[in-house]
Amino acid sequence: MPEILDQARTQVLDNGVGLDEAGVLAVLNLPDEHLPAALQLAHEVRMRWCGPEVEVEGIVSLKTGGCPEDCHFCSQSGLFTSPVRSVWLDIPALVEAAKQTAATGATEFCIVAAVRGPDARLMKQMREGVAAIKAEVDIQVAASLGMLTKEQVDELVEMGVHRYNHNLETCRSYFPNVVTTHSWEERWETLKMVRESGMEVCCGGILGLGESVEQRAEFAAQLAELDPHEVPLNFLNPRPGTPLGDRPVVEGKDALRAIAAFRLAMPRTILRYAGGREITLGDLGTRDGLLGGINAVIVGNYLTTLGRPATDDLKLLDDLKMPMKALSATL
Amino acid sequence: MTELVEPAAAQRWCDRCGEPADTGAHAACQAARELEPPRYCTHCRRRMKVQVVPTGWSAVCVEHGESRG
Ligand code: SF4
Ligand SMILES: [Zn+2]
Ligand SMILES: [Zn+2]
Fold this sequence. Notes:
The complex is a heterodimer of chains A (331) and B (69). With 331 residues, chain A is an alpha/beta fold. Chain A has helices at residues 3-14, 21-28, 35-49, 91-103, 120-136, 150-159, 175-178, 184-197, 213-226, 252-265, 277-290, 310-319, 327-330, and strands at 55-64, 87-88, 108-113, 140-144, 163-165, 200-202, 205-207, 230-235, 270-273, 296-298. Helix content of chain A is 45%, strand content 14%. A three-stranded antiparallel sheet of chain B has the order 1-2-3, with no helix packed on it. Helix content of chain B is 9%, strand content 22%. In chain B, 28% of the residues are buried. Chain B is mainly beta and 69 residues long. At the A-B interface, strand 1 and helix 4 of A face strand 1 of B. The structure holds iron/sulfur cluster and zinc ion (ZN) (2 copies). One zinc ion binds next to loops of chain B.
């Protein structure tokens, strides 16, 4: 057994203390033959510190495309020649999407907008949309609307948004290679305000943007320092027309190594499989991840791309005897 | 789908990359479309307004109407 896994067994599994950057890097550098042991340990850590429940979420784009920012992976930036056009979802369709999500048994519904930060029109749409969902659907509402002012944070709390997603996307040292229209620190500012407001913090990122293995470890350590309630882990799905459109996808084994390493860095967080898992890991990857530290999934489609049918994921959870987190457990 | 004025014009353009459907290779486009909605109208090559929701998608061409999946 590699030394780092022995160390993690005591430190993380027994004592609940996450690995530091050097420890994460050692896990990311484990040779293939030790990957099953790393995944097994990450799974035990998740079972011990989070339990067997899996949090299921659906997401929807309230405002798609035409974003003024230049995140190099994003097909919704208006600065690239991406085929994604700007479009708004109306409130009846938003409520319908929440209903469909709730019908899968999901407890989380995240409303996302492709913006630098919300303007008055978006906040109004949110206010009406969240109220309409709360009146008709039994589900927790989360939001992801970019960078916020303090007033907007307070407004979202008032609306009853219980969790806010704002991804750091990648480590601090690599961020300027991926985004030039705003800084990592500006994102951190929003996260701090969200934390102080009492909303749950959801913060993750995308692997495969061209960052080094060392920078992946740096990212895990920075997330651990933030200590988010939830960490969504995406794998780059290279989008036509974006600056990263020709990048290779993350190797399946590297993706699984990262899942184990991020779990060992953050034993108690909700570690969610987000976008790109179908491309990077195929159908089998979802099972491997759920047995390697993942304890949450996005079911159904993403914002501009499609996922596997929700029923496939729900059947898998059933096969793995992992119960879906119930709404009562989240309230 | 709305009814087409010129059925003969069907499938002239690849709905993923927007290039002529009968030239070039679109096998990769077809494979990618399993996990993506269409982006270009196959009849007129216009970029469509596409809305993805958890259980489906809709794509609207101003000229040729809406398709769903
Ligand atoms: S801010 Fe969000 S929507 Fe805008 S380009 Fe960046 S990732 Fe895309
Ligand atoms: Zn094509
Ligand atoms: Zn058309």
